[in-house]
Amino acid sequence: MPHRSLRRLPVVLLAGLLLCPSGWAEPWAPGQGPPPELQLPSAAEARQLEALRQTGSGQGQRERYLRHAHKLLNRFWNSREQPRLLFAGDKAEGCGVKRVEHPMAYYCPSSKELAMALNLRRSVRSARGKSDQDLLLLDLAVLAHEWGHHVNREQGRGPYRSNFNLTVKQEELAADWRTGVFLGWMLSQGAIGVDDFTQTANLLFEMGDYERLAAQHHGYPKDRFQALTRGIASQLTPGQSLGPWMVDTQETFSRPLRQTQKDKLLGRRRYAVRRFEIERDQQIATNLVGGLLGAASCIWGSQQQCIGMAAQQGKGRAEGAYTERTLSLYCSSGSFDVSDDDFDPQPIDRDGKGQAGVLMARDCPRG
User: Fold this and answer.
1) Bridge-based pairing state of the strands 105-108 and 84-87
2) Choosing a second label site near 7 at 20 to 30 A (CA), which of 40, 166, 187, 192?
3) Of residues 150 and 33, which shows the higher confidence score?
4) What is the CA 222 to chain-centroid distance, rounded?
5) What's the chain's average pLDDT?
6) What are φ and ψ of residue 284, in 5° steps?
7) Residue 139's closest CA among 158, 167, 113, 115?
């Protein structure tokens, strides 16, 4: 994000800074997805949204897509009141904002307004080489996150609820969890594929908070990714097929590869796998002012926030991404090997992701 955007960053304001914790209801048990009384939209509606993403490009297409998604999210969460969706150039009425402009992405509870004015190619380094269709899924995730704040206020914060000492981090993680619930439902309906989801998750990780010293810290990228996948897992089950892919664990997917003669001789099975990895050895320098999904600027925040944002500039941050690997499984020896890592074949129980054990239990003959 350009440094000059610092003065406009309220902007990426988190509803968590504005909400009051009193009186929030908890209508369902944490970790079980949407409330049981929720009347989910149909798979056809989810696929209609995806079909719209694939047709056309440009700002007009983006607004049409997000308006359609806005209505779908309202039905998905069975919200009592649909917020007013604003785009760049629109007039705003609440939270001290008069006109919506980049990089604004926020939910304002007092006016029930939800703004979507992030220019993702200007704000997210890895977004610059992506197509308009690719970035619409990231826009959808941001919209679902801001909707999460609205639903948190209406229906509670699910597994991130707390009766006392509400923190911005709890509110943020709850919104991330709700984002995961919605995207998990889209995956389960066949509306989006595993490759689309993992690419979008990679971009979301890049949008997290780093090294924040202030009390308004929104959660490190790993915290927020785990909240996202916790929401995803509420909608998917291990062993579930998603097109050619299969769900293995909360954050891993696999697709069996055709067994070659060499595979038969070695007694191995091979899989294309998607595994989320956090790389800390080659941290990259960052000059981000704050996490795009809800940072508060010095205009809106306290002196402590300003210190926190200033202190974080130039610090390194870990890179996190779903990797595209090949996993080799050796049933006879109970070992596995993942391509492009620094390790030779290892015992199954050494897989910190738990994926190799799931694949062995599923596919290796028992005798």
Assistant:
1) unpaired
2) 166
3) 150
4) 11
5) 78
6) -100, 150
7) 115
The partner residues of 271 in beta bridges, in order of sequence, read 256, 327
What are 246-285's pLDDT values in tens digits?
Answer: 999 999 999 999 999 999 999 999 999 999 987 654 443 3
pLDDT, tens digit, for every residue of 315-327? 445 577 899 999 9
Buried b (16+ CB within 10 A) or exposed e, 26-57: eebeeeebbeeeeebbeeebbeebbebbeeee
DSSP letters for 91-126: B--STT-SB--TT-EEEETTTTEEEE---HHHH-GG
Backbone angles phi, psi at 324, to 5 degrees: -105, 105
d(C-alpha 332, C-alpha 330), whole Å: 6
What tokens does 328 get? 């080799």
d(CA 143, CA 351): 35
**Amino acid at the residue 117:** A
C-alpha–C-alpha distance, residues 119 and 16, integer Å: 22
225, 209 in Cβ contact below 8 A?
no
Reduced to 3 states, what is the DSSP secondary structure of residue 214? coil
Q: Which residues make Cβ contacts (< 8 Å) with residue 331, sequence separation at least 6?
A: 267, 268, 269, 360, 363, 364, 365
Strand ranges in the chain using DSSP code E only, listed in sequence order: 84-87, 105-108, 113-116, 241-242, 245-249, 252-256, 268-285, 316-330, 335-338, 346-347
* Domain segments of the chain as ranges: 3-244+295-314
Distance in angstroms (rounded) separating the CA atoms of residues 173 and 175: 5
Asked if 179 contacts 137 with a C-beta cutoff of 8 angstroms, the reply is: no
Phi-psi region of 170 (alpha: psi -120 to 50; beta: other; left: phi over 0): alpha
Distance CA 230, CA 149 (A): 17
Which DSSP symbol is given to 295?
-
Residues 189, 269: Cα–Cα separation, whole Å: 29
Distance CA 329, CA 356 (A): 7
What strands, in cross-sheet order, belong to the sheet with 105-108?
84-87, 113-116, 105-108
